[in-house]
## 1
Amino acid sequence: MSKPVHVYQVIINAPADIVWNAIVDGDVTVQYFFGTRIDSSWEPGAAVTYAYPDGTKASEGEVLSIDPGKRLEMTFLPLWDPELTAEGAAREVWTVEDAGGATKLTVETFDIAEGGKIHTEFAGGHVYILSNLKTLLETGSSLQMTSPDGT
Amino acid sequence: MEAVFKAINDPSRRLLMDRLFEADGQTLTELCAYLPDMTRFGVMSHLKVLEEAGLVVSRKVGRNKHHYLNPIPIQEIYRRWISKYAEPTIGRMTAVKALAKERTK
């Protein structure tokens, strides 16, 4: 068992099923995940894509394992930048747990080379995405930003 | 949020966060090397405060416990405090800087 490269965690004041749905429902991801919609049949081995409104794929990957409502393990290959694509797919584990009335969402990343471009870009990206998701589910609105640094 | 401010309010804990930012997922032994004057127990106590504030998340892999910097509570502070109070100022500062640059041309 390898150790994660990064572990991100956020406590969201929303029920676990709402948080889970926000991960797998494209109508929700479009509101906090850089304007992209997630799409998959959510079977192990199925493709997972995040796509922009015009249909261009931001990323593609594969469902490695899924325990609906609780845990999703998938690969994530960035397609928005050829340099990132060249570095290969990362692996992510999304975990949803009850936390005394609130929900704890954890994202662990694996298979990312230290010092690579993915390593640098993903760190800020995940912080932005998870923080945005928290704001969205708790207040019903997200920051209308299109990049991690707000430009 | 109270726990986050308290956790940040200590130079050793800020140092541990900075070292984890540079290299995420370090063990207690690795982190102790950055605070040579502190006991192992002291470093462990600081990590516990950081964990309770959600600024550090730990993962046990095999026999080792690895510590990860979780910057999301800091992002929350940014959203709640900095962006609200400081951004108009930063905007003005940038404008002043641009003007100064223009004048010195």
## 2
Amino acid sequence: MKLTAKTKQYSLGKACGCTKSLQGTCGINYRAG
Amino acid sequence: MYSLSNSEVVCVAYHTPSQSVVFLEGDSAEVWWRIYTANGDCEPALKYIRENGTFDGAEEGSRAVLTGFLEDLRRSNLVGEGSDRASIESCVSNGTDPTQNPELEIGQFMADHHVLYSLVLELTYRCNERCIHCYLPSDTRTVELTTLQIESLLREFADLGGLQLQLTGGELFVRKDILEILAIAKAHGFATSIISNLTLMNDSILAALADLRPRSVGCSIYGATAELHDSITTIKGSFDKSVRSLRALRSAGIPVVIKSPLLRSTAPHWREIERLAQDLDCEYQFDLSITAKNDGGLAPVSHRVEDSAALKDIFASRYYKLYAGEEPMSALTSPSPDAGLCGAGAAGLCISPDGTVRPCIGLNVPLGKWPETTLSEIWRTSKFFSEFGAIRLRDIEECRDCSDFVFCSRCPGAWHAEHGDFCKPTSYACKLAHTWADVQRGLAASRKGEER
């Protein structure tokens, strides 16, 4: 059994995007088909 | 922890002071969940490993697996006392490649499994500022959910698997019960984001926020000077109050993002706002998509940045160098007409102050009214999710043959607010996409020229 917990840093800004909501929310189903 | 219909098990865990998130699958999720629910007692986790793993020496082998896993978790600050401040600051200041957004990956996973994962809760439409571009209805008087109702709503959200919560307004700190609401969010262990102008933040609210350990606090700042910022909020003294609170939040170790909707009068000064954010040790986010009001009013639209030179300056900045994996977006030549419109309702909902349920804060389409209809019922039965989710770019006449779609920060909610149709782009959305594409193509061409 192999157990892994890879942590990633999340960014609050550093990108353009909707300022009304959580960054990235609208990116779901967004760019790729 | 999520047990999905295909018997897949996953966990999402946040450590907000270090702005880190971990997504655990399968056995890793099972073991983490046992450690978490046993308040750090590892016996149930060991039992699971022994029963589900294959080892030469069951006891030694299972302990070695658990020890390695605990070391991973300790490095992630998910177990152990306190956290390594130096490594956290290093991680945060190095930032994250915005195209490698772990939260977006998790959101996409939840959307694929139709999990109600995030909730935007508009606590009030009342506000002590009067921003010239505000998208909220002109008449902000509305019935608001009570503290007890909010407690009940958030309990239902948690029971459905909700983890990400955004509390916003209006200005949420005008609510007399804001401390109680923050305590409810803490009790459920949500990864909570707060959006506020912070002018009403006092010591009690600061203490409650520090106790909540929110995922982030976002605050709109429109200029790096009081004169410019206050000209947008139309409230003298608002800049000084917001900045004072931003400093206090950062001193308390709370992650803060300065949000700047860029307007005609403020866009030329965006670099000064970026510098202010750096000076205040905050992250920075801006947005060109100024939308019509939720009630269809078009007053905010007149404040949009229309000047081509100003737009090109912004689109040439590092914020707009988009990549798809290793590939620059500008190098992509075959847009996919199979892309969906956006993520509205994909893994989350928005609740208006009176309990109206909508698919997104930006998309003003009512799906039902809480508490008359439960979140669960709306999430299970509303036809919106399948119908909206089925719309593809190829279904939109203006988008079908557009070669610049990868540069389009499209917001069907903004289109809907402006002319009542979420399948009809605004001319401004198209202008932004074409300008961004032109700038990026120009930059790519000059890079090729330099390489020769």
